[in-house]
Design goal:
By secondary structure, the protein is mainly alpha-helical. 62% of the residues lie in helices and 0% in strands. The protein has 4 helices and no strands.
Length: 76
């Protein structure tokens, strides 16, 4: 179940939030930022649950393999 929340913020903050996150995505963005600070989550259980998500793990592996050499190519 979702609850509606009204918050107040400086206009410039809102304008930049709207510009960067996009219309219709602000609630989810804020929830994802706030969630780890207010939820009692056992991290070990959370990591175990993530590891069991095969599609997510495959995507993470593909990303890691695609970016593994990026640091080696950087100028020193």
């Amino acid at each position: 179940m979702q609850k509606k929340l009204t918050i107040t913020m400086e206009e410039r903050v809102y304008d930049n939030l709207h510009r960067r996150v996009g219309r219709g995505k602000i609630s989810r963005f804020i929830e994802e930022l706030v969630r780890p600070h207010v939820m009692d989550v056992d991290r070990e259980d959370a990591y175990r649950d993530m590891a069991q998500d095969e599609a997510r793990e495959a995507e993470a592996l593909a990303w890691a393999e695609a970016t593994a050499g990026d640091g080696a190519d950087a100028a020193r």
